[in-house]
Amino acid sequence: MNGILIVDKPKGLTSHDVVNFVRKKFGIKKVGHAGSLDPIATGVLVLLLGEATKLSAKLMSDDKVYDAALELGVTTDTLDADGKIAATKDVSGVDNEKIKTVFSKFCGELLQEPPFFSAVKHNGTPLYKLARRGISVKKEPRRINIKELVIEKIDLPKIFFRVHCSKGTYIRKLCDDIGKELGCGAHMTFLRRVKSGDFGIEESISFEELKSITPEKLQGRLRQV
What we know:
225 residues; alpha+beta; 2 domains; 7 helices
């Protein structure tokens, strides 16, 4: 079986969990993906089956679009809602105009430092494994491009937004940086990938449907390469 399958990854599963499920259920030896999602995130996971795995590097370089939310006044060790609270701060001095001004500063080409809890490697070891052992390694900032950053709703202390960004952008680090700029801290509470390159959420298959679909019907859901 060869082709590209767009899965709507549910919260709680790793991208590797989904890859393993497809590999075992359908007996496909070669299954990969074109960009992972953290367990807290949902949405577009581009799976590459069979010969399509050769496209991994090309598709990983595609832009991504996310719907996200952050909460002001609370920071966590992982920069998202799955982490332990690191600090809290009053947000009464933050208003809508200040939020809009700060958001505008995060559009365009930026340097972003990878978070301590990430898959970026240091001497061959992922940073998240070092972080779990209490070892914090500062990595060099990476150049990213935030092509669009639109505030959808402000309901303090939460802010809902959509971001169109280049590969390698950490949205939870973006939330953390916005919180720092506002002077009150923040962490990411929600993340949903709605597009990866040309692949949108509207053509995805849910994980529940994936669990019951037959190989024949799955073949019909694949985008051929």
